[in-house]
Design goal:
heterodimer, A: alpha/beta, 26% strand, B: alpha/beta, eight-stranded mixed β-sheet, 12 helices, 33% helix, globular
C-alpha cells in the first residue's frame, strides 16, 4: 500500500462564546490530502492559519468536528489516541520546543528507553541500550555515552531536537508529524536537524508531514507542498513546481516576500496589503479575497473549488481557468 | 569622519563568581546613510552591542571602549543626563518584543504623547495627534490605532507603532533589534519594505540586528558578521554575503536553504559556541572551523583591512 495517510474533508472548529450567539473559529475547514509512503508533505502557512491544528487533529491530540482520516487503510477519525496503543508507535510527533517535550528530571537514556519498553522493542534493557547507542552513533551524536546520562537542560537546543527526533525514530514509525521542528534553532544547527530528518526518511521510508512557516525550508525538505490560509487549502503541488510556477495569488505573495540570499534581488515585489485574518465565522467566498489584488465580485460570494491546473498541481482560485 | 566610530568595545556581564565577556574588541565605522546589518546567531553578542551603544545595559554589565564616537561626539563620556537628551532625539531603538515595550494599560496615543513631551514639552495634544496621524500614514497604520490599547493590535501593527515612536523626534540613527523576528513572512516583508523607504525618506542611518542573512540582503548595504562576541567580517553586503572570506561567514551562508537556487545540500556547522566566561586564546571560531591551521589555536588573528572590508582570520593574512 502506498497511501499512508488520507485525509478527507477534515474540519476542526473551535467555539468562542459571544453574548447572544455562538461563533466558531474555523481553524481547519474542509481540508483533503494524502501522503504516500516515504514522501514528505509540507504544510506551509502563516501563524494562525491552522497548520498546527491540522497536525494535532491528525495525531489524535485533538478531535475533529467532521471528515475522515484514513491511516494505513483504517479510519481513525473519532478514535482517541489513548485507545490505540500500536497507533502511537506508527505515528509520531516532533514539536517545536524540545525542552518542552522532554521530562526535565529524566536522564536522556531514560526518556529514550521508556517508549521502547512500553512498545516491546528490544528484549531487555541491555539490548535496548545497544539499539539506542547504535542509533546515536549513526545520527552522529557521538560519543553516545556522553549524552545518555545527561539531562535535557545540559544540552543545546539543536542536540536535544536531534535526540527528540531519534526518540521518535527508534520506534520505526510509518508516519511522522514535524511541527515547526527547526523554527527555534539557529541556522547553523538547523541544517543538521533537517539533514538528519531526511536521512531517517530515506532509511526507514517514513512519511512526514512537515509543518512550517518558512518556504525556503519547505522547499529544501518537501516533495509536495500544501499552502493553507485561514483554515483552507489555497494550493498544493510538487515543491519545485509550486516555487517555480505558483498559481494562487497568496502563494505568489509568500514567495515574493520571503527574503532571499541571491545577488539578483527581485525588483518588483508581488505586493499585498492587510494582515492574516482569523477565520471566525468566515463569510462565503474565498478567504483570501479581502487581501487579494485581483479579487472580483465572485470571490466574495462563492467558495473557489480546487482545480487541477497541470497534473498534480491544484489551486483554489476563481481567477484560474 | 565616520558618523559612528566604535573602537575596541568590550562588554561583559558579571555573574556570581564569573563574568561573561559578551562582546570583545568590537570595532567598526558606520558612515552617514548606511544601513548596517549586524548578523549573528544567538549568543553572538549582537543585542548586547546594541544596548551598549544606547547605554541601556543592565547594572551587572560593564562597558569599556577605546572610542565610541557618534556624530562627532564621544558618547562614552556622556552622563545619564546627556544620554537622556540624545535618546529618542538622536538615536532611537526598536526592540523585538513590541508587546513588552508598550504599556498594556495605556492607549497608544498616551504612550506616544509621553515620548513627544519628553523632548518638546510644549507640544499640545491636538498638535501631537496631527503629527502622529501623519507619521502613521507613512507606516500604513490607520489613525484609529491611536485610540487603541496594545492588546488590540497584531504583532505587525505593534511593531509599526514602535517604529513610528522611534521616528517622532527625527533621529539621526535608529537601531532595529530583531524587529521582524517573530513576524510572519509577509508581514516581515512589508515591514522591511517600509523600513527601507523610511530610512531613505528621513535620511537616517540604521543598524539592523538580525539572525537572518536574508533580511540583511533585503535591506542593508553593509554587514557585520558576529560570532561569540567578536566581529569576524565586515563589509559591503554584496561582497560579504556573495563572496565571503571568513570560514564562519562561508559556513553561515551555506547553512541557509534558499528559494532561488537548486536543491543544493545545506550544511550545518558542527559543534557549539565556546564558553564565554573563559574565551579561548586563539581564534574564537577555531573549534568549529574546517580550514583551521595549527596557528589558529593559540594566536588570535589580527584584523586585516582590505579596502572597505574587514576580515579576522589567519588564512587571509598569508
Amino acid at each position: 500500500m502506498t497511501q499512508i495517510l488520507e485525509v478527507k474533508k477534515l474540519k476542526k472548529y473551535y467555539p468562542i462564546k459571544k453574548i447572544g450567539r455562538r461563533s466558531y473559529v474555523k481553524a481547519v475547514d474542509n481540508i483533503s490530502f494524502s501522503v504516500r509512503r516515504g514522501k514528505i508533505l509540507g504544510i506551509l502557512g502563516e501563524s494562525g492559519c491552522g497548520k498546527s491544528t491540522l497536525g494535532r487533529v491528525i495525531t489524535r491530540l485533538e478531535m475533529e468536528n467532521g471528515g475522515d482520516i484514513f491511516f494505513l487503510g483504517n479510519n481513525i477519525s473519532g478514535i482517541n489516541y489513548r485507545k490505540i496503543k500500536d497507533f502511537r508507535q506508527k505515528m509520531q510527533v516532533i514539536f517545536q520546543n524540545p525542552y518542552d517535550s522532554f521530562d526535565p528530571r529524566r536522564a536522556i537514556i531514560k526518556s529514550l528507553e521508556i517508549p521502547m519498553k512500553l512498545l516491546n522493542i528490544g528484549q531487555n534493557r541491555r539490548n535496548r541500550i545497544e539499539i539506542i547507542m547504535d542509533a546515536m552513533e549513526r545520527a552522529k551524536l557521538t560519543p553516545a555515552y556522553d549524552y545518555l546520562e545527561r539531562y535535557p537542560h545540559e544540552l543545546s537546543g539543536g542536540q536535544l531536537q536531534r535526540i527528540s527526533m531519534l526518540r521518535s525514530m527508534l520506534l520505526k514509525p510509518n508516519f511522522l508529524v514535524a511541527d515547526e521542528c527547526v523554527s527555534m534553532l539557529d541556522v547553523s544547527v538547523r541544517a543538521e536537524v533537517l539533514n538528519m530528518l531526511l536521512q531517517f526518511r530515506s532509511e526507514l521510508e517514513t512519511s512526514i508531514l512537515f509543518i512550517t512557516h518558512d518556504i525556503s525550508v519547505a522547499k529544501y525538505m518537501c516533495d509536495r507542498i500544501m499552502v493553507i490560509y485561514a483554515g483552507k487549502v489555497m494550493e498544493i503541488a510538487d515543491a519545485k513546481e509550486l516555487i517555480s510556477n505558483p498559481m494562487h495569488p497568496y502563494t505568489k505573495a509568500l514567495i515574493s516576500y520571503s527574503p532571499i540570499i541571491s545577488p539578483q534581488r527581485e525588483k518588483d515585489r508581488f505586493t499585498i496589503t492587510g494582515e492574516v485574518v482569523t477565520p471566525i465565522d468566515p463569510p462565503a467566498g474565498c478567504r483570501f479575497a479581502s487581501r487579494c489584488p485581483f479579487a472580483k465580485e465572485i470571490c466574495y460570494t462563492e467558495d473557489p473549488e480546487m482545480t487541477e491546473i497541470s497534473p498534480g498541481h491544484f489551486a483554489a482560485c476563481h481567477l484560474i481557468d | 569622519m565616520s558618523f559612528m566610530r566604535l573602537k575596541n568595545v568590550d562588554i561583559s556581564y558579571k555573574l556570581e563568581n564569573t563574568s561573561v565577556r559578551a562582546v570583545r574588541s568590537f570595532s567598526c565605522d558606520i558612515e552617514r546613510g548606511d544601513i548596517v546589518g549586524i548578523v549573528g546567531e544567538s549568543g553572538s553578542g549582537k543585542s548586547t552591542l546594541a544596548l551598549g551603544i544606547m547605554r541601556l545595559l543592565p547594572p551587572n554589565a560593564s562597558l569599556s571602549a577605546e572610542t565610541m564616537l557618534f556624530d562627532g561626539r564621544n558618547i562614552l563620556s556622556f552622563n545619564q543626563d546627556e544620554l537622556r537628551k540624545i535618546r529618542w532625539k538622536e538615536i532611537s531603538v526598536v526592540f523585538q518584543k513590541a508587546m513588552n515595550a508598550l504599556s498594556p494599560v495605556h492607549k497608544i496615543f498616551t504612550q506616544m504623547y509621553d515620548v513627544i513631551i519628553a523632548h518638546s514639552p510644549d507640544t499640545s495634544k491636538g498638535k501631537a495627534y496631527k503629527m502622529l496621524t501623519e507619521l502613521f500614514s507613512k507606516v500604513n497604520l490607520p489613525s484609529k490605532v491611536l485610540n487603541m490599547y496594545p492588546h488590540e493590535l497584531s504583532g505587525g501593527m505593534m511593531q509599526r507603532v514602535m517604529i513610528t515612536m522611534s521616528l517622532i523626534h527625527n533621529p539621526k540613527m535608529i537601531i532595529f533589534d530583531e524587529v521582524t523576528t517573530a513576524l510572519d513572512v509577509i508581514t516581515q516583508g512589508q515591514l522591511l519594505d517600509e523600513i527601507n523607504r523610511l530610512v531613505r525618506e528621513f535620511g537616517l542611518t540604521a543598524i539592523i540586528i538580525t539572525h537572518d542573512i536574508g533580511v540583511v540582503n533585503e535591506v542593508c548595504n553593509k554587514v557585520a558578521v558576529m560570532y561569540a562576541g567578536e566581529l569576524l567580517e565586515f563589509g559591503k553586503v554584496k561582497d560579504v554575503i556573495f563572496s565571503p572570506m571568513h570560514p564562519y561567514t562561508k559556513a553561515l551562508v551555506k547553512s541557509h536553504p534558499d528559494l532561488r537556487i537548486g536543491n543544493e545540500l545545506i550544511k550545518g556547522i558542527p559543534g557549539s559556541l565556546p564558553d564565554l566566561t573563559d574565551p579561548p586564546g586563539g581564534c574564537i571560531f577555531y573549534p568549529r572551523c574546517d580550514v583551521r591551521l595549527d596557528l589558529c589555536k593559540s594566536v588570535k588573528p589580527e584584523v586585516s583591512v582590505l579596502g572597505d572590508r574587514i576580515v579576522k582570520c589567519h588564512r587571509i593574512q598569508r
